[in-house]
Design a protein that fits this description.
Elements: E1 15-19, E2 25-30, H1 31-44, E3 52-55, E4 61-66, E5 80-83, E6 91-95, E7 104-106, H2 119-130
Antiparallel strand pairs: 1-6, 2-4, 2-5, 3-4, 3-7
Length: about 140
C-alpha cells in the first residue's frame, strides 16, 4: 500500500536514517515520558498530532518531527534532546509508511506531506511534562 501524499523522505520499505535539520527537526523524549507527551498532544489535536516515530525496543525513544529549522527557536528542557540545526550530523531512523519496520513505527499513523508536529505546542507540553518533580503527580 502506498500513498502519493507520503513525504519523499519516508522510505518505500524498511527503515532509513535521515539527517535531522534537512527535511525535519526532531525532539526526542524517552520511555513513559515520551508516551505521556504523545497522549497529551493527541488529546489536544483531536488525534492528529503530526508525525511521531517511536522505538519499541531499547530506550523506547519517541521522536516528534517538527518543521526543519524550528527547533532552534525553543529552549528544550533536560530530558528532551533536539535534533536539528543546533546539532551536527544527527540522524533519525525513519520507518516506511507501511509494512514491517521493527523496531520503529509511526505512533499516530504515517506522515502526510507538509504536516509536522506544532513546535510551539510540543514545547509547551514537553516542558510541562519534563519539569514535573519526581513523586509529584503531573497533569498528564
Amino acid at each position: 500500500m502506498t500513498s502519493n501524499n507520503v513525504p519523499d523522505w519516508v522510505p518505500a520499505s524498511g527503515l532509513r536514517l535521515r539527517l535531522a535539520g534537512v527535511h525535519f527537526d526532531a525532539v526526542r523524549v524517552r520511555g513513559v515520558r515520551g508516551e505521556a507527551v504523545v497522549h497529551h498532544l493527541a488529546d489536544v489535536t483531536d488525534g492528529c498530532p503530526g508525525p511521531v516515530v517511536r522505538e519499541v525496543s531499547g530506550g523506547r525513544w519517541t521522536y516528534f518531527l517538527i518543521p526543519p529549522g524550528s527547533s532552534k527557536g525553543y529552549a528544550w528542557p533536560p530530558g528532551a534532546a533536539c535534533f536539528g540545526p543546533c546539532a551536527r550530523d544527527q540522524y533519525v531512523g525513519i520507518p516506511a509508511a507501511y509494512g514491517n519496520t521493527y523496531p520503529l513505527s509511526w505512533r499516530c499513523g504515517p506522515p502526510v506531506r507538509d504536516v509536522f508536529v506544532d513546535p510551539e505546542l510540543l514545547h509547551e507540553i514537553v516542558t510541562a511534562q519534563l519539569c514535573v518533580e519526581p513523586g509529584v503527580r503531573g497533569v498528564f
